[in-house]
Amino acid sequence: MSALVRSSVGSLCAAARAVIPSIWRGKYFSSGDEPAENNPVTPMLRHLMYKIKSTGPITVAEYMKEVLTNPAKGYYVYRDMLGEKGDFITSPEISQIFGELLGIWFISEWMATGKRVAFQLVELGPGRGTLVGDILRVFSQLGSVLKNCDISIHLVEVSQKLSEIQALTLTEEKVPLERDAGSPVYMKGVTKSGIPISWYRDLQDVPKGYSFYLAHEFFDVLPVHKFQKTPQGWREVFIDVDPQVSDKLRFVLAPCATPAAAFIQHDETRDHVEVCPDAGVIIQELSQRIALTGGAALIADYGHDGTKTDTFRGFCGHKLHDVLIAPGTADLTADVDFSYLRRMAQGKVASLGPIKQQTFLKNMGIDVRLKVLLDKSDEPSMRQQLLHGYDMLMNPEKMGERFNFFALLPHQRLHGGRHQMNACQSKPSAFPVAGFSELAWQ
After folding, report:
1. Among 23, 16, 38, 39, CA closest to 249
2. Please, what is the angle between helix 160-170 and helix 130-141, to 10°?
3. Between the N and C ends of the chain, which has fewer C-beta atoms within 10 Å?
4. d(Cα 258, Cα 260) in Å, to the nearest integer?
5. Spatial distance between the Cα atoms of 369 and 313, rounded to a whole number of angstroms
6. What is the pTM of this model?
7. What's the CA gap between 219 and 159, in Å, rounded?
8. Are 97 and 366 in contact (CB under 8 A)?
């Protein structure tokens, strides 16, 4: 099914253009009233305008893909956008406790499934490597538990800039990195704790086997198709050059149905939806791998369970940014639809969540870990930093209720071999999954 979906996703843009007339008569959606002088003509804007004028309006998904991952001009490819000096900050950068608790989660799952002699830890979109670094520190501290286990680290990263930062963060300087730009494994090394580590551009290239997968703020940047319900049916939102204003883009509605509408549920009740076929492809790949070889996937992101509508937005300098202004200089993101991820698993694996970050971290023992660190710290500045980080992670008005945790596990891990559990059945008492409450079981 993955190959089929991937093929259909790849053909959507071309098929959509085939139904669009040469004279575009879509409905205009204002993206803001910024004057032209506040809309700098970036290299990416010039590229997109030439592309649109040559081949016609593009989908929001194609726009996101170009802006974020274009090999020559993409936002993610050659810059470090994380941290206070960047455009946004993530939980691992705020507090070490976040990564430590995730490390405990993976060890808990490894123990609950029989303490196999080897496992792979695979992270999708590892940022600066801070999260996996904190996880590896937990692995080292619990070396007596993992001493007979052969662990390897596999990072899926498309950004050249970030992969270099990850290598500086994680690898042993005395062991030279192996580089091969033309290989699926474009970089190899050894972590500071002696664990082999490899880099890939695509999940498909990661070796299959008993693995634990981690995706933190990864799915929210995958390209989404946007649809508006009209009296004539669902119409896809496209991006076009504004004929009234030089060097400006605008949203328009397709004049007729486009192939991507096939991803919309028949019983959809919202009047505006966002669908991410790329996320479906990745979830299917993860589900197939976990069903065949075991392991688990832990996904943490902001999102909803099939309830929100228009969430497409940009961030620049930690502030909201018009998605059509100065493309290539700001991050683009959309909330993850966890109900869609659950459907795309197609019953191959069981799903847990989504549950709020506040609930997950509390279940994982964040309060106990904070107290241990506070008791060990004599410096007022360090104690203040720990308390500030805790507040950022747990406060419902900050990250506590904006971010969610979602997991994929083999059916036998949860149900003792039963293929599926319905809503009226109770949670099995044996080997509960750390972090997830009864309400999270699906």
Report:
1. 39
2. 20
3. N
4. 6
5. 35
6. 0.86
7. 15
8. yes
